[in-house]
Design brief:
single chain, 413 residues, alpha/beta, nine-stranded mixed sheet, five-stranded antiparallel sheet, 11 helices, 31% helix
Length: 413
């Protein structure tokens, strides 16, 4: 049980008691917080408990025209894929044996628009099979009128990977190219089908600055992931928010969110996580294994253009896990019950996770991250990031009281 110290706007102090595994939060006197009321008022049309939508993630190849300094697919082959490809019709037919037509089909790279000819053909084949929901995550630099016309025709959801003021760690800036910017603005004109997908780095560590940078160029838009980068080697660690700035980062994020109470912030993933946390507090249903990723979504299918079934689109069939096992689970032509998911970690197997105050939000980080010094940096970055979301949730539940200390995790140390 953890003690949460909270403070009112007038300076009065009180305490809450928090069990991160249950999860449950009660007042100092044992009385409950208004969890159900807060949940229903903030998310009246989107209460927890609905089944997560199925996903098909088609990895088109590792080819990329950028060299993001922190990319966890690097070092790797950035050239166009040399896989022995399945015929496109055969691959889509095989996928349809494992996925319902209401699943979202996502196209991934590398940079997926390098493979636009293939993306277009796959989309047309999926449409013939009855699929209607499509998504692409792209750096945006290869957008031109023909590509944008196609994405709009098929009502694609489009996420542009862009780090605002920290874009220099990725490479070029598509928002600085007038012809590309024009295409991005066409896509951004559909706010429910467009987002900016940043990561937080030493060059992009302030949410207000990030929002202003993007809105100046695109107007008000929503944001996707927006979490500190996962550090896997010395290169990615050099791009991360420095450890001595973690506390300042957490404070600015908490302040940013607090300034938008009760709930009017544009970072959609934060909203999804807060909603899920409130639902768990309401039901006391424990911390799930689901990490908001394909690796823990039983209704997700990740496959490359050779038909290899994988736990995540970030890996290839020839990569090995930290446990020395191949990521290859099987072939899409096989039976699902014969696919073998490689051994992986969970928050239950990671000792440092079990009593962590942000367990519900983080859920153990990536299950395939080696537990080394780089993992420790990732862990600390996400601890501080999710402390801000925990504080934000507490403020929502207490009519604006501030979370000032989590014993034994003081926020001011």
């Amino acid at each position: 049980m953890l003690k949460l110290t909270i403070q009112s706007r007038e300076g009065a102090q009180s305490a809450l008691f928090y069990d991160p595994q249950k999860p449950a939060i009660v007042r100092e006197d044992g009385n409950p917080l208004p969890v159900a009321e807060t949940l229903s008022s903030l998310f009246p049309q989107c209460l927890p408990g609905s089944k997560r939508r199925g996903e098909v993630r088609l990895a088109l190849g590792r080819g990329c025209n950028y060299r993001c300094a922190y990319c966890h697919q690097a070092p790797g082959d950035y050239q166009a894929s040399t896989l022995t490809l399945m015929p496109e019709e055969e691959l889509v037919e095989a996928i349809c044996r494992h996925a319902d037509t209401d699943a979202v089909v996502q196209f991934w790279g590398g940079e997926p628009l390098i493979y636009f000819k293939q993306l277009r053909r796959y989309t047309e084949l999926f449409v013939e099979k009855g699929f209607t929901e499509f998504c692409v995550i792209t750096n945006g630099s290869l957008l031109k009128e023909e590509v944008t016309d196609f994405l709009l025709k098929h009502n694609f959801s489009v996420a542009i990977s862009h780090d605002g003021p920290g874009q220099w760690l990725r490479g070029g800036d598509p928002l600085a190219d007038p012809s590309v910017l024009r295409q991005i603005r066409r896509l951004a004109a559909r706010p429910d089908r467009f987002s900016i997908n940043p990561v937080m780095t030493r060059g992009n560590a302030n949410h207000q600055t990030l929002e202003e940078y993007i809105s100046y160029r695109l107007g008000p838009v929503g944001f996707g992931e927006a979490v500190p980068i996962m550090t896997v080697d010395a290169q990615s660690t050099s791009c991360a928010i420095p450890e001595h700035e973690f506390t300042g980062y957490a404070r600015q994020l908490y302040g940013y969110l607090y300034g938008k109470l009760p709930f009017s912030q544009p970072f959609s993933l934060y909203g999804m996580q807060v909603k899920s946390f409130l639902g768990a507090l309401k039901d006391g249903c424990g911390v799930p294994e689901d990490r908001y990723c394909t690796g823990s979504n039983p209704d997700a299918l990740v496959v490359d253009t050779a038909g290899s079934v994988l736990p995540c689109q970030s890996f290839t069939a020839t990569d090995l896990t930290p446990f020395g096992e191949p990521f290859l689970m099987g072939h899409v032509n096989g039976q699902k019950d014969q696919w073998r998911k490689p051994r992986h970690a969970s928050w239950r197997s990671r000792k440092q996770c079990r009593d962590c105050p942000v367990l519900y939000f983080c859920r153990g980080c990536c299950p395939y991250h080696a537990e080394d010094a780089y993992f420790t940096v990732s862990c600390q970055g996400r601890l501080h990031h999710y402390m801000a979301l925990l504080g934000y949730t507490v403020s929502l539940l207490t009519e604006g009281w501030l979370l000032t200390d989590v014993s034994p995790f003081p926020l001011d140390s």
